[in-house]
TrEMBL record:
<protein>
    <submittedName>
        <fullName>TolC family protein</fullName>
    </submittedName>
</protein>
<keyword id="KW-1134">Transmembrane beta strand</keyword>
<keyword id="KW-0449">Lipoprotein</keyword>
<keyword id="KW-0812">Transmembrane</keyword>
<dbReference type="InterPro" id="IPR003423">
    <property type="entry name" value="OMP_efflux"/>
</dbReference>
<comment type="similarity">
    <text>Belongs to the outer membrane factor (OMF) (TC 1.B.17) family.</text>
</comment>
<keyword id="KW-0175">Coiled coil</keyword>
<dbReference type="Pfam" id="PF02321">
    <property type="entry name" value="OEP"/>
</dbReference>
<feature type="coiled-coil region">
    <location>
        <begin position="439"/>
        <end position="466"/>
    </location>
</feature>
<dbReference type="InterPro" id="IPR010131">
    <property type="entry name" value="MdtP/NodT-like"/>
</dbReference>
<feature type="coiled-coil region">
    <location>
        <begin position="68"/>
        <end position="95"/>
    </location>
</feature>
<keyword id="KW-0564">Palmitate</keyword>
<keyword id="KW-0472">Membrane</keyword>
């Protein structure tokens, strides 16, 4: 009769646990849309993609590649990201360990004195330590044994947790690749900015020389009473303005050099560079491939995809919390009140094995909250994944348009510079023959300088656009 009732109680408990696991709240899930347009606007469907080119082959300037190589070794932000990868790798090891039994070794010694009028103290004391001697008080206790605990992963809660941790590890690797692409692009853009400033400095100094020559002519004409002191002062002011601009450019050069040094993880020093590479530029045969290749080439999109996979696994892990958990515990060792008895077999030997089933019945709000939070994060990850794809496409589209428009703008500015350069010679000749006012000479020189500086700035923007489209397509993280 006892066994029958005993089985009924266990059956009722198991049914209750199973019922508790079945009442799982419903959630609204979202499926990611990773469809992209077939081609970029006004571009072919050729799958040749510049993103596959290694950055050492994309950038031809040896000085620049040396700087990038140093940055990839010393940059603090990149090294911080590498530690994030190590943290994620250790998390995988932790989750993998949870799948295996937990085994430990225990050794201890103690002393116990119980009350005589207790259930333990009033028990049988017939065991002899030595023949004819009673049980001692207090009683020593010595123990050496192995203990093990293991959760049986029936619902794949631990497996999914390990898969999620591994996916997050892969995501951290893609995050590192994204930092690499950003670092490569930032160093390259700063390098071309430095070359542009060098060219602008040369242009300003040439202009100062030209203005000084014009000032000398004006002084001679004043002595000949062909112009007044006002003209001399105007030309002197223009020279001083150009010299002031020279120092502004020198300050910008210093700041840009220091910016590059910061990216390289070192204190300020001179940046070696090839000024002539500003004229040669990058290759114009830019192959963009097709938009769907962004999903495989851009690290940030791959990272968002992996984060989405991990978020879905986290939902499964949270869902498994509603189901009963099955655990097994065991122990094997030796225990005795005298150390010499620990080796006596089988009297001092102890062992145990037990299994348990547990599931929440009441107050499951915390588990529900975890489940709903995991699902909300999964939906967030879907939107982030879709957003990263859209952002990647927009970045490529913007840079392609920029390259095209900057090319047209550069051609027009080059014609403008040519016309104004010729105007300087004409205005000087006319001024010497008193057929032009000195203000016309000043305005022509000023307009020509501004146009030349703008031309250099446009050239720099062209370099930046070529770097940015390479980055936007997913290039720069392989060397």
């Amino acid at each position: 009769m006892f066994n029958k009732n005993h089985h009924k109680i266990w059956g009722f408990a198991l049914l209750s646990l199973a019922y508790a696991g079945c009442k799982i709240p419903s959630i609204v899930q979202k499926t990611a849309n990773n469809n992209t347009p077939n081609t970029y606007t006004n571009h072919t469907s050729d799958t040749t993609n510049v993103a596959k080119i290694k950055w050492k082959d994309y950038f031809k300037d040896q000085y620049l590649t040396n700087l990038i190589d140093t940055a990839l070794q010393n940059n603090q932000e990149l090294n911080i990201t590498l530690q994030e990868i190590e943290i994620a790798r250790n998390e995988v090891r932790t989750r993998k360990g949870e799948l295996l039994p937990s085994v430990g070794l225990k050794a201890g010694a103690g002393l116990e004195k119980v009350g005589r009028y207790t259930s333990q103290g009033a028990g049988d004391a017939s065991t002899e330590i030595k023949p004819g001697k009673e049980m001692p008080e207090p009683l020593p206790d010595y123990l050496v044994g192995l203990y093990a605990n293991w959760e049986v992963d029936i619902w794949h809660k631990l497996r999914n947790s390990k898969k999620s941790a591994y996916t997050k590890y892969l995501s951290s690797v893609e995050g590192k690749n994204f930092v690499v692409t950003s670092l490569v692009a930032e160093v390259a853009n700063s390098y071309y900015e430095l070359l542009a400033l060098d060219n602008q400095l040369d242009m300003v100094r040439k202009n100062i020389e030209l203005q000084n020559n014009a000032l000398a002519v004006v002084k001679l004409q004043k002595e000949a009473a062909r112009v007044t002191e006002l003209a001399v002062r105007k030309f002197e002011a223009e020279v001083l303005s150009s010299k002031s601009l020279e120092y502004e450019i020198l300050q910008s050069i210093t700041e840009t050099e220091n910016k590059i040094n910061f990216l390289l993880g070192r204190y300020p020093q001179h940046i070696a560079r090839n000024k002539s590479s500003f004229e040669t530029g990058l290759a114009n045969n830019l192959s963009t491939g097709i938009p769907s290749q962004l999903l495989a080439n851009r690290p940030d999109i791959k990272q968002a995809e992996l984060d989405l996979i991990a978020a879905k696994l986290d939902v499964k892990v949270a869902k498994a919390q509603f189901y009963p958990s099955f655990g097994i515990s065991a122990a094997l060792g030796f225990q005795a009140f005298n150390p010499s008895y620990l080796v006596k077999m089988p009297e001092s030997m102890l062992y145990s094995i037990a299994g348990d089933v547990a599931a929440p019945l009441i107050n499951r709000n915390a588990i529900k909250a975890t489940y709903f939070t995991a699902n909300a994060k999964q939906i967030q990850a879907v939107y982030q994944y879709e957003r990263s794809i859209l952002n990647g496409y927009m970045e490529v589209a913007n840079q392609l348009a920029s390259i095209e428009n900057l090319g047209k703008s550069y051609d027009l500015k080059a014609q403008q510079v040519q016309a104004l350069t010729q105007s300087i010679e004409i205005s000087n000749d006319l001024f010497k023959s008193t057929r032009a006012d000195y203000l016309e000479v000043l305005m022509t020189q000023r307009d020509a300088l501004e146009a030349k500086l703008e031309l250099i700035e446009t050239k720099k923007q062209q370099f930046n656009a070529m770097v940015k489209v390479y980055q936007a397509l997913g290039g720069g993280w392989t060397n």
